[in-house]
Design a protein that fits this description.
- By secondary structure, this protein is an all-alpha fold.
- It folds into 2 domains: about 1-80, no CATH class; about 105-185, Cytochrome Bc1 Complex, Chain D, domain 2 (Orthogonal Bundle), CATH 1.10.760.
- It is about 55% helix and about 0% strand.
- It has 10 helices and 2 strands, in the order ααααααααββαα.
- The chain has helices spanning about 1-10, 20-25, 35-40, 55-60, 70-90, 105-115, 135-140, 145-155, 165-170, 170-185, and strands spanning about 155-160, 160.
- It has a two-stranded antiparallel sheet with strand order 1-2.
- Helix 6 crosses helix 10 and helix 8 (about 145-155) packs across helix 10.
Amino acid sequence: MAQGVLVALEEQLGGRLEPVWIALRMGVPPPVAEPSMESTALPSPSGLDAPAIGSAADCRQPVAGAGAAPGGLLRSLLAGALLLALALMLLFWGLPAWGASDPVVLQRGGRLFENHCAGCHVNGGNVIRRNRTLRRQDLLSQGIKGPADVARIAAQGKGQMSGYEKVLGEGGADAVGAWVWRQAELGWPRR
């Protein structure tokens, strides 16, 4: 559509859009000054009636890949955005759950743990099943990879342990998960 408009304008202005036409066909910004194409045209070989290479008539011929420049740019931008999103996702994938480092959340999680969990999990241990502790290496060996996994188990339970979702209240399981994971990272320091 834009090419049709340029052709019509060029015909009305008597061929003065040649530099703009060339620039648009090549996918580059148009030149500031309007040099004459005839002055830079190469002479045609003797005895041929074909227009000179680089003349105005030559510029109106389709250029290989001329229409692909904007689409190629869009594809490049989309690919770059996708790669950036992937890199950011991989970079931040292992970070703790939202609020896991918030002092208020951690304090609440510590209180809830002391009130509802410490009876069986004294200092991160386990008085029922000694090999199922809350120490970091044991959590990781059981496939528990972060505070969200701990919160899920605190809420729903696992194995012999029942879930405490109702007892812990809204957001309580997440707070306990954040606090337990933080203690596991610190090696369950004595208080």
